[in-house]
Amino acid sequence: MNKTILDLWVGLFVIVGIAALLFLTLKVGSMNTVNNSNSYEVVARFENIGGLKTRAPVKSAGVVVGRVADVRFDNEMYEAAVTLRLDKRYAFPKDTSAAIMTSGLLGEQYIGLEAGGDSVKLKDKDRILITQDAVVLENLIGQFLYGNAQEGAPK
Amino acid sequence: MLKLAIERLGNRTLQGVGRIGFAVRFFVAIMLHSGTAFRRFGLTIREMYFSGVQSLIIILVSGLFVGMVLGLQGYETLQTYGSEEALGILVAMSLVRELGPVVAALLFASRAGSAITAEIGLMKATEQLSAMEMMAVDPIARVVAPRFWAGVISMPLLAALFSAMGIFGGYLVGVQLIGVDEGAFWSQMQSAVDFEQDILNGVIKSVVFGIAITTIALFEGYDAPPTAEGVSGATTRTVVTSSLAVLALDFVLTAFMFRGLS
Amino acid sequence: MQHDNLVEIEGVAFDYGARPVLKGINLTAKRGQVIAIMGSSGCGKTTLLRLIGGQIKPSQGTVRVAGESLGELNQAGLYRLRRKMGMLFQFGALFTDMSVFDNVAFQLREHSDLPEDALRDMVLMKLHAVGLRGASHLMPAELSGGMARRVALARAIALDPQLVMYDEPFAGLDPISLGVTGNLIRRLTDTLGLTSILVTHDVQESLKIVDYVYFVSEGVIVAEGTADDIRASDLPYVHQFVHGEAEGPVTFHYPAAPYVEDLRLGGQSA
Description:
The complex is a heterotrimer. Chain B is mainly α.
């Protein structure tokens, strides 16, 4: 086996292999995971986060603007403290509200941000004050059964 | 009678454990003697041709067929829930996370792994390895280590190629043949497949599989009794043992990698 | 440092697991000599070669080559010493994925930095010495048994070693190749100033070319001497071996029960 031909084939193999990896990385996967350098964090507190998981998307007007970075339980206030990591390109007013929504009827849960009207914007480490809990199916059924149509009181 | 059977079982277990110990020392020896494989990279490249390039056809064709079957079967199932548009996600996730690394590894084990075992076993049987030792050239550095690194480098490339071909196959069947929306196919896939979680983990898996398969193949060849039956037995053992190892490691790695998801 | 004895084996014993293969061997090989180690199959001759080459270690005793004791060497030292040795394996053990030329060039490429032109000349010289310069482009699979062994010999002398060991060099060769091989061994030893150690059971060919013979049986040396001594010896084992007699210390029949009993003759109904 001529050494030059061998080298050629192996080189081709490696190039095609790396091309496949690139294809998978760029066209198949999403590389735009929001990381520390191009993002800022805000906290939102909920009484019930339902099925919200870390890495769930944070959307506003249906567009992904960030990811859920962390979900913690506050043992003093007995609430959930959710850390949202938002893309630096998007600034939200201080009175933005965060609600836990479900994509589709039985799909995975995400956070929907609805912008308020304040001229002052949210900064890193700020807190979103207006939140809406996840819709828990049992409560919904209970409300329906007892004929109460109650919205989760804004905090 | 029973006593004899138990004695034989105990004996064979002890032998098996001894072999595992020997295999670990063998692996350490390969690591220590890997300098030559990199300083004279031409040796490694040569082995990459025999292990990697010559496995290309079976990997690409199998990948294509597996992807196409995924497309067909996936569509059938998703249709029941009205979620045909998730076909892209199903095909991509299955391939990148599991089928790509695992099936490519199994194919690599049977094609390249058995070839390596047979070659080394034959070299041992015809005293070529002894001759090399007597010429003051360490066979582990010159013969074994280059094959090891060739296998470890080739495996993730082959797994990526398998996954890529599979996704293409799924696309062919799903979009072109059945008529799933092309835009939905790719966009849903892109939004669901994550680089770190899925693709990187898949690559890590295939590297681990590559290490396992190549080590087993080299060890069985090096340890084979220098007879015809010895070499053929070693070749069979390579395919069986490395296939089992791949599946077991897959479980361990999957459990470790995807436990943090919920 | 010049030593008259290139190889010295003193009080060496070797056990294969629990079975003793060699039980106390004393052997010397002087420079420029052709030594033969003879004996029937399984008596430990090849084990002796492997002890000299350092592939195995003796359970007792010392093996010295060129004044260095093999037992005290680490791997680097052993490899250094092996560059002064060449070994011819029974069926050649040529590297099947390389041509004849590359096989002979192997040691030169691995252990020296010679440029390819100088290397080419050296390889062709070695091949010429064994008469196969015209076959340098062939692959081992295309060679006959005798030719393969000659190429292996050229490979063994590639680095001009001081010691060459031959494992059954005459086994399975046709009469012409036998003569050629024996001739080559003697000529190379004389012209290159080597020491050659042959392990063989071909009496006729080896007695023609050797300076000294050691006879091994059941793990010990039962006889030694020059070729004439051996031919004239009346030790029963040596005599049986040299003259190829069917009966002697080595019996024809494998130990068994008496014949009559085995066939169940003598009064027993069939």
